[in-house]
Task: structure prediction
Amino acid sequence: MSTRFLLEENCVMLCELEVNNIGTYVELITRIDAEQQYRMWFRGQSDYSWGLVPSVQRKDGLGEHYEQYITTNFMIHTMRLNPSAPQRYDRASWLTLMQHYGLPTRLLDWSESPLVALYFALSSDEDAKTDAAVWVLNPMELNKKVGYGEYVPPISYDSLSGDLEGAFSNHNNDDNKSQSRIIACHGVGSDLRMYVQQSDFTIHSTSEHLDKILMADESCDYFYKIRIPQQIRKQLLVQLDAMGFHESSIYPDMEHIAKEQVISHFISKIEIEQTI
Result:
C-alpha cells in the first residue's frame, strides 16, 4: 500500500492521506508542517469513520440539559470532597478537570505531538478491525475562520467565557458568536499529564461537527485526515513503544504504570510473532 501525498493543487478541501509505516507517517507530518505557518495540532481516533465531536454531544437521549446537570453535580461533590477544588466561577478549570477524569464535556482533546496522537489512535483498541485516523488542524486558521483573529488563546482567557458558560447555565449570552462556534485554545494548568501529552482543546459551543464544517469550506487548506490501515496498527504500536511512547510515558501515574505491564506483554508477543 503506497503513501499518498496530496499537499499541492489537489488538496483544496479536506486532505485525506494514507501511510503504511512510521517513517512515511513522520515524512507526511513534516511535509504538512512545512505548508503551514503555525504549529499544527493532532488528534488520534481509533475508528476512521468517527467525526470530530466532543464527548458530551455523543450522549444521545439524555435530555436537553444533560451537560449542565452533570457539570453542576460534579462541582457540588468535588467542592465537598476537595478543599483545593477550583473556584466556583473558574469555568475553564472546572471543564479541564472534568475532561481529565473522563466526564463528558464540550472540550475536544488535541495534542501538539503527532506521535502522541498516533499512540491514542492505536492504543485504545489493540484488536480493532477498522482503520484508525489522525486528524491534523491548524488552530490559528480555525480561529481566523470564526472571527477570533490570528491568535490561539489559553482556555482561561475572558474572551472565551461565553464559549464555556453554556456548560454551566441555560441562560443565553448576548454575544451570539460565543454560543455557536468552535474555537481552538491552549490548555493551561500544572497537570503533569496535560504537559506530557502536550494537550490543547477545541471548545464546541455548537452541535455542528468540526469535520463537516471544514469539509464544506472549499477554501480550507489547513485541515487533514490521515488513514492508518487496520493491518499495520499493531506494527505501528510496536514501533511507537520502541520510540518511548507507551502507557506510562503518556499517562505518568501509578495506575497506568501497572496497566503498562499488561500492555508490555502484548507488545512482546507481537514482536515474537513477527520474528517467527
Notes: The beta strands are 15-18, 41-45, 107-111, 132-137, 182-186, 199-204, 223-228. The radius of gyration is 19 Å. Residues 1-13, 173-178 have pLDDT under 50 and may be disordered. The CA atoms of residues 92 and 156 lie 5 Å apart.
